[in-house]
Amino acid sequence: ITAWNIDNGTQIKDFYAGSVVRVLKSLEIFASGLGNGVIKVWDYDSFSLLYNLNGHRSAIHSIDYFPNNFLCSGDENGTIFIWDLTKQLKHTQLIHNGSVNSIILINSNTFASAASNSIKLWSIESFNNTYTIENAHSTEIIGLRYFSNNLFSISSDGILKSWNNSVFKFQINTNCSVFSFDMDQNGNLACGCTNGYIKIYSTHLDSFLLINSLYINKGVSSLCLLETGFLVTGGINGTMNLWNYNTSLNVLAYKSNSGTVTSLKYFGDRFLLSGSTGGFIRVWDRDNGTVIKFFNASSYVYVLKFIDRTKQTTTIGTGRPFISTTFSSFTTDYTVSGILNNKNSLLFDSKIIHIESLNFNDLVKILTSRFDFNDCLLNCSNHGECIYDNLLDKFFCNCQENYYGSSCKLNVKPCSSNPCLNNGICLNVLTNNIFNYECQCSNQFYSGRNCEFRKDVCFNETCSNKGNCYDSNHTAKCKCFSMYSGDKCEIESRDLKEIKRTIKATSILAIIIIVCLYGLLIILDVFCKSKSKRKNKKNRK
To answer: Sorted alphabetically, which keywords does the UniProt record give (predicted)?
Structure first.
């Protein structure tokens, strides 16, 4: 790619990208999580609704944006959805029991969620739960923040904790019931209390240091830290206030919202977004407190999240055919030039871009950035293409349909992991835009969801009670006891028959002897009694 100065026609910079580059144009969009379970994605510039994401069955309490153009949302019933914003479809469903009040991106590999009093860590590649901190707090966790390799959590009872690598470090009691929580890029924390207090802390290696404590006469339902030293609060009565927390000065009171202010997001360039229970999203001028524009979400607005995406993404080709695209900002034509690389003369396609608009700065920014394209170009595993993410300021693999992960090596279809055992056939089943699977077991001898249970062929085989049944290639076989044989152990051996005859004869003889002995005893008893009577008569005479 060659960048040119359109005023004097001089060449500014050459840049080799492998094959094809598409230059991006900014698009400011944001998402709102609503009380009816819908996520609305808005175009800030045109005041228009881009699309809805439907699937949650309860109010959405948390949203965050992930690499590869994924959006993560959690609701009050413990359901977490991963959304593919490119396709505007549900990608994965996760469960974290309780109301998912906070979701945050920790790094390119991990995100965290807080529900009830537990914290879960999840893999961004596989979306599996990698670690769970049970009973992280004694009451419901209100929010999570991440700064300088430390995770911070705060619960409704005002306990603020610091964690490092999922290990508890230290805590402080803010001595108030907490409504809201935020953190700025310098590591300063702020919490809004139900009694109207706003407390600001700085974070240190082993403690929290109270910077200031502010007070307003209404509960602080939401807050947002701005530039260093400033924050804006939203109240349960719909009021908003801009504070200088270094001087404790209430700089500005904004006009009232309709209903409780439930969410605040700072847009930069003086603009501030607020969401309320009245269902409206307002854009405020931070400095004078006037409403610039508003959006009607038609439902309780719980959470707002900016998504700094692009109308056109930068794409680096990896050998796949290039489909040309027309742009309003510039036109392109192609030449072939020889490039000497590592002393080997090779021919590469090069694109000469003639700039025809004022988007020249966007192009120069890309050309002068120190990006490592090689890792992205070489590791998309033929299931994706290398694109630039403006939010993360990096290149990553944009995966083809049904593939995900940093290298697009993972297949979203569950059958890709071969879950069916014992030669079972796996079928991918798509229900409500969520993939599941079914196993068709290869024969009647296996059952279960994964064909993991083997049929008990010995269930009705007793082996005539003269042996033990065993499974031989799905057939019931009998292992006979000593002196028995036959398929069912029904045949007695000759020795056993002789033994039985001997036992029978012996038993008969024994019975005869016993009877004779018993009869002899009776005769003797009768004889003895008769003799005794005769003797008694003789003595009387």
So the answer is: Disulfide bond, EGF-like domain, Membrane, Nucleus, Repeat, Transmembrane, Transmembrane helix, WD repeat
Are the CB atoms for 19 and 26 separated by under 8 Å?
Answer: no
- Of residues 443 and 446, more confidently modeled: 446
CATH superfamily of 415-454: Laminin (2.10.25.10)
Q: Would you state the torsion angle of the CA atoms of residues 439, 443, 446, 450, taken in this order, to the nearest 10 degrees?
A: -10
Query: Residues 66-84, buried b or exposed e (16+ Cβ, 10 A)?
Result: bbbbbbbbbbbbbbbbbbb
| CA distances, 356 to each of 21, 325, 330, 363 (Å) | 17, 16, 5, 12
DSSP strand pairing (167-173 vs 159-164): antiparallel
CB-CB contact of 17 with 316 (8 Å): yes
- pLDDT of 347 higher than 70: no
pLDDT for res 200: 95
| Percent of the chain whose pLDDT exceeds 70 | 78
| pTM of the predicted protein model | 0.57
Asked whether 68 and 333 are in contact (CB, 8 A), the reply is no
| pLDDT at position 333 | 36
Between CA 268 and CA 127, with CA 34 as vertex, the angle to 5 degrees is 85
Q: What is the 3-state secondary structure (H, E, C) of 2-50?
A: EEECCCCCCEEEECCCCCCCCCCEEEEEEEEEECCCCEEEEECCCCEEE
Residue in the block written with tokens 């700072």: 266
Q: Cβ distance 243 to 234 under 8 Å?
A: no
The number of angstroms, rounded, from the C-alpha of 49 to the middle of its chain's C-alpha atoms is: 27
Structure tokens, 342: 């590592």
Domain ranges of the chain: 2-14+315-406, 415-454, 493-540
Amino acid identity for residue 176 in this structure: C
